[in-house]
Amino acid sequence: MADLGLRSVSRRTLLKGGAAVAALGGVSAFLAACGGSNATPSAAASASAAAPSVAPSVAAPSTAAAPSASGTVTFGSNYSDAVPKKAIADVMTAFTAKTAINVTINTVEHNKFQDTINAYLQATPDDAFTWFAGYRMRFFAAQGLATDISDVWANIGANFSDAFKTASTGDDGKQYFVPLYNYPWVVIYRKSFWTEKGYQIPKTIDDFTKLGDQMKKDGLIPLAFADKDGWPAMGTFDILNMRLNGYDFHVGLMAGKQKWTDPKVKAVFQKWAQLLPYFDPAPLGKTWQESAQDLISKKAGMYFLGTFAGQQATDQATHDDLDFFAFPTLGTQYDSEMGIDAPIDGFMVSSKAKNLDGAKALMEYLGSADAANIYLASDSNDVAANKQADTSKYNAFQKSSAAIIAASGKIAQFLDRDTRPDFAGANGMQSFLQTFLKAPTQDLDKFLTGIQGFYDSLPPQ
Amino acid sequence: MDSSSVPAVAPPASAGGATASLPGRRRRKRFSVLTRRDKLTLGLMVGIPAFIHIFLIWLPTIGSIVLSFTSWNGIGGLDKIKFIGFKNYENLFSNYPPFWPAFENNLIWLAVFLFIATPLGMLMAVILDQNIRGTRIYQSVLYMPVVLSLAIVGFIAQLMYSPGMGFINNFLQAVTGDPKWVASGTAIDWLGTPGLNFAAVLVAASWRHVGYIMVLYLAGLKSVDTTLREAAAIDGASARQTFFRVVFPVLAPINVVVLVVTIIESLRAFDIVYIINKGLNGLGLLSVLITNNILGEASLIGFGSAIAVILLLISIGPIIYYLARTMGKEAE
C-alpha cells in the first residue's frame, strides 16, 4: 500500500500486527466502534483553549457557505504519526478559531483505520474523516457511505486545478472529497555523491541504462529496490505502464476496462525484465526503509519511490543532499504526457454525519489556502493540492516535488488506490508482482492469464 | 455464588430420609430437593456459559459456514448478501494460486512442530529434570521466548534475518571479513527467498515452541512418583529404558496435552508470518489468507469464510480426538 502508515518504522508494523490479530479474534465492527469512541480530547481541548482569544473575530461571520453551522464536528483521523498528527491538530485549532465550531479529533492508527474502514463507516462514523483520492474514494461514494459535497466545491473549486477536481469526483459526477496534499513518485539520488562521481540526470531510458552500466562499474547498485511488503513494486509497474501505454490505458486497466492479457501489458513486463539488471537483485527480503538506507549510505545510486523516502534521511544535512527527477522517458508517443503517480490525501464527509453543516463548513475550510499553509508548515514532506497555497516557504525538496507534479500532464494515484482493493491486496497484485520478480523470464502469457483469471473471479461491484 | 444455597440443600436431604417410607411422596420430594432459588442459581450457572458459548462460538461458526456460500463485501444490510452456492469453493481450488501453497505450509508447520520442535522441548525437559547445575538458569533461558507473543518473535526475526542490516549476515561478515555476506545479490536473502524464508520463520517459531513444550513437560516430569523410577532402577533398567518404558507411559495425560497444544499452535500460526510480510512470497498460511480476504476495504467476506471453513474442517479432527479422550477419561 502506498500509505504513510506502512512506511514508518517496524515498531509500527508490530502494532499493525497486533491490530490485525485483534481484528481476527473479534468482529471488525466492534473494533471500529472502539476506534470511533476512542476520542482524543487534545484537539478539542486546545481548540477551546484557543477560543476565548479569538472570540471577537467570531462575531464577524467568516464562513459564507454555512452560516448556520455551529456546535461540534467529529473528525476521524488516520494521521497517527507524530508530525502529521500535530499538523492536522493545528489546522483544526485554526478552524475553531475562525468559525467557533469545535472539532473533536478521533485519531486511529493508520493501518487499523484502513483495515476497519468498512465497518467504521457503517457503524457510528465521525462527521468527517481522512481518506484517499482515487478508486478508494469513488468506491465509498458509490456505496452510499459518503456525503455529496458538490455545494462545498462550488465555493472552493477555484482553489484547485481540474486534475484535483477530477480526482475528487465520484462515479456519479459529484464531488465527495477535498484534497489536502500529494507527493510524487520519483527517482531520488544524492546530489553530492553524483557530483563527486560526475553522474548526469538521465532524461531517456537509454541515458538511464548507460548511467546504470557506469554505476555497476563503480560497484554500485544502480537502482535501489525493495518489495518485501508487496506494494512498492506497484509504483514501478505504474510508471512503466504509463510511459509505454499512456495514462488512459493505465486507468482503463485499473478500472477493469482493459484486460491484463492485452499485449500492451505484456510489453510492460518485458520492458521491466530488461531493466531488472539495474535494480537491486534481492528486493523481496527488503523493506523500502532498508532500500532508502542503501541510497543514503551510497550503496545504491538511485531509488525510485515516493518522496516520503526522504523520511529515512533523519539528519537535516543528508535530507538536504537528496534530490530527485521524474522517471526517464521510454521513447513512446506518451513521453510528452509525462504521467506519474502522485497520490492525493484529503477528507470526506460520512453519510451518517450528525453535524452536516459543521462538517461542510470544515470541508470548506480544509479546501482553503489557509488550511494547506498551516498543515504544510508542520509537515514538509508533501506539497499542497491547493493552488492558492503559499509556496514561498517550500524547501528545495518541496519545490522539486511541485515542479515535477506541475510538469506532469496526467496524474495517477497509485495502483492500490486506482483499482479495487481486493484485487490490489496481498491476495492479488502484491503476490502477482512478486511472482514476476522471482522469475522475470517466466511465460508471461500464462502469468497474465492468471492475473486476469483472478480479476474475473472477484465478485462484480 | 449465593452462600445460602449450601444450607438450603442440606435439610431436604434429611427430609428425603424421613419420607422414605412413603414412595409416592418421596418422588415429589425429590423434585423439590432444589429450592426455587437453587434452580435459579443453577439456571444462571449453566445458562450464562451456555449463552456465551452459543453466541461467541456456535453462532460465528455457523455464520461463517453460511457466509462461505455467499458473495458479500461487508457493506450494507443482510439483503446485500447474495447466495452463490459452491462458487467460492470452486474459485478457491481453481482460481486462487495462494491456496494450495498455504495449505501445504500449514502441514509443513505441523510436521516441523510435531517431529522436531516438540520432541526437542521434551528432550530439554528430560535433561533439565536431572537436577544438573544451573538448571534454573537454563530453564529461564529456554522459557524466555514463551513470554513473548509470536508477533514480537516475528519482529525479532526480522532484525535477525534482514539481508543487509540483520544480525546473522553482519555476524557472518564480521567473522569472515568478507563484505559479500551483506552485499545485495550475494548476501543470503533469508526472508526474500521462497522456501528459505519459511524455514527461517519455522526456526523462529520453534524457538518459542520448544520452551513452551519444555515447561509443560517439565511440570509433568516433576509429578512422576519417584518410587517408580527407583523401582525401575532396582530392576536394572537403563536411563533410556526407564524413560520410554516407565516415565513416558505414566505421563500419558501430559503427552496428550502436548500433542494437542502442538497441533493447535501449528494451525493457529499467524502473527509471525503476518508481521513479516502478510504471508506473501511463500509465507502463506490459511489463517493469513483468511485475514487478507476478510480484513480491509471491499473485503471478500464470503470467500474468506470459505477458507475459514476449510481451516475449521482441518482443526476439527484433533479437537474431536482430544475431547473424546478427555471425556472418555472422565467417564471411567
Explain this structure.
The complex is a heterodimer of chains A (461) and B (332). Chain A has 461 residues and is an alpha/beta fold. Chain A has two domains: 10-182 and 344-388, Periplasmic binding protein-like II (D-Maltodextrin-Binding Protein, domain 2, 3-Layer(aba) Sandwich), CATH 3.40.190; 185-341 and 410-457, D-Maltodextrin-Binding Protein, domain 2. Chain A is built from 23 helices and twelve strands. In chain A, strands 2-1-3-10-4-11 form a six-stranded mixed beta sheet, with helices on both faces. Chain A starts with a helix and ends with a helix. Chain B has 332 residues and is mostly helical. Chain B folds into two domains: 5-48, no CATH class; 98-295, MetI-like (MetI-like fold). Chain B has 15 helices and two strands. Chain B has helices at residues 5-18, 23-31, 36-67, 87-94, 99-128, 135-147, 150-161, 167-176, 196-222, 226-234, 239-250, 252-267, 271-277, 286-294, 301-331, and strands at 70-71, 82-83. Chain B has a two-stranded antiparallel sheet with strand order 1-2. In chain B, helix 12 (252-267) packs antiparallel against helix 15 (301-331) and helix 14 (286-294) packs across helix 15 (301-331). The longest helix of chain B is centred in the first third of the chain and has 32 residues, at 36-67. The radius of gyration of chain B is 28 Å and the shape is flat. The two termini of chain B are 30 Å apart. In chain B, 35% of the residues are buried. Chains A and B meet through helix 2, helix 7, helix 15, helix 22 and helix 23 of A and helix 7, helix 13 and helix 14 of B.
